[in-house]
Specification:
The protein has ten helices and nine strands. The chain is of the alpha/beta class and 266 residues long. The longest helix is centred in the last third of the chain and has 14 residues.
Length: 266
Amino acid sequence: MSTQYVGVDWSSGEWVSIAYTDGSETPSVAVFEEITGVWDHYGDSARRIVVDVPIGLCDSLESEACSCVEEDGALSRRCDDLARTVIGSQYRSVFTAPAREAATVAAAGADHSDISDKNEELTGKRLTQQAAGIAEGIVEVDNLLQGDGDPEVLVEGHPEVCFRTLNGTPLEHSKHTAAGVAERLAVLRTVDEYTRGDWHTVARELGSEGYRVGLDDVLDAFILALTACAPKGQFHRLPSDPPHDAEGLPMQMVYRSGNELNPELL
């Protein structure tokens, strides 16, 4: 069986995956309704699956098992704090990850105000609408990794961190602008595994299957897949020695770079 390297973006309740396969000249794309579908499809063949939702969650201010950073009476994941430093002007794209209990409340359909109240009770921090909105995907991944999923294979990556580390410097424009799309496409073209026709291959396949996947979601899935392809010397973790949450899951973001970053020097 050929080895695959997969990037997965959670988009409006669906999981968009792009995979590079050893021995194939072009990537493949697929859309799944649940993360378990991604795992069932790639779990046996993937060397890495890099997904854009938080893995490793805060517990509470009172928990002795919580490895989050406490500052001024509030908890945060160290990887989130470092990611905001790394990406510079795009720091708002790193949402505060909900605590596990708050994410469960959100996934059950609670109102945003109730979700935010619960998160503040647990961690001292409120949640944005966007952070609460990704809770369903967070809970799906969390449940998978506490079940049949392998946390050495299925790992967290943030697209903006991955674009920045491959670019070498922070990006200037939002991915929701024409200039930002051009900037990110230029980064993709610098990666060995990517060829100029890959974008068109994926776009045609999505169109032929009738999927209406957003441009930014395809960009994100691409950069996560190319990060998954990183050779050993270019595959890094933020922070480099990640802590683990109360369930034993690493609290990290992976990235690809010729050199390991030291966010303290940025």
